[in-house]
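Structure tokens please, single chain.
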Amino acid sequence: MANDPNKPNSSGSNPSPSESSGGGRPQSENDRIRQRRAERRAQEEAATSASASKAESATSRTALRRQEREQEKQRRRLTTSAIVIGVIALLIAVAVIATQTPADAPIPDYALTRYEGIQTGTTQNGYPRLGSADANVIVIEYSSFDCSSCLTLHTEAMDGIIERVRAGNVAYIFAPRFGTGSIVNGQGAAEAALCAGEQGMFWQMHDALFNWHATFGNQAFTNNRITTGVSALNLNRGNFDGCVRLDSTVGILDRARQEAIAAGFPGTPAFTINGIQPVNDEGLPLVTAPDILAAIDAALAQFSTTTTGADAQATLEAVVPEATPEATSSVEVTPDTSAAGADATPEVDLTAEATPES
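Here you go.
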């Protein structure tokens, strides 16, 4: 029985659009193609996104590492700065403690007694003097507290010089210099002695300074040691500080340096006896204790018991110092190392004119 075209399909379904399209590709294939393309695009986008994410992540990690390195550098800088600041603070604290802590400054017992009964004074040049200005023999020593040879001569000759001064026929004059030795602050030591001299204590400070040189070496003349010594000698601290602060001693020290250089004495110690530098048979200066004491005795022997001090002073003022080669004896003459030592050529005045005794 033929199918009736007006009756529905026995299968109960209508033909699909693809089947009614006249033989083209099925619609489901197109959908699958579009789906695959969409999937590829999605995969490509995911891959691009993943790549971008990886790049961003790598960049982020690099930035993080850079930040961590910078932070570490900053921590190191802060640590280093803290250490430096701590060291500086410690050094400042040590310096403050060192300057405020009184230093040991012993005054030798002999310094307080061995000048008793000896006339003292100063010359017109401001040099301290032991003995009468009218003495027959005038001994001038150019010396420095920072000079080791001067220390040796002081240790070995001072008792003998004091003995001869006490006998009444010798005057000993100390022309202070500095910078001819290796001990630090020789100028401060010379100023301290001269400022103590303004209070009548030059010779006591003079002995103390040489004692400190022998005892403390390069730390002998620290400011706090000198300050302690001022108190130990019962000096008026205000007057002493005023003397140092006002540079009251500068002219005296400069005059001694100029005189010594003009006289041909490049270093210390150097002596004149009645205006003439004592020398040995070879013309070399005498700078050892036995030689100096012998030269003083020889000068005394030249004066009769009737020679007056005024005659000796007139003789001294008429003498021109003689420059001789440097000494080669067992006590080395220490050369002048002060700033302007070799430049000065002023007129020299080695006369021992005295001001009224203190």
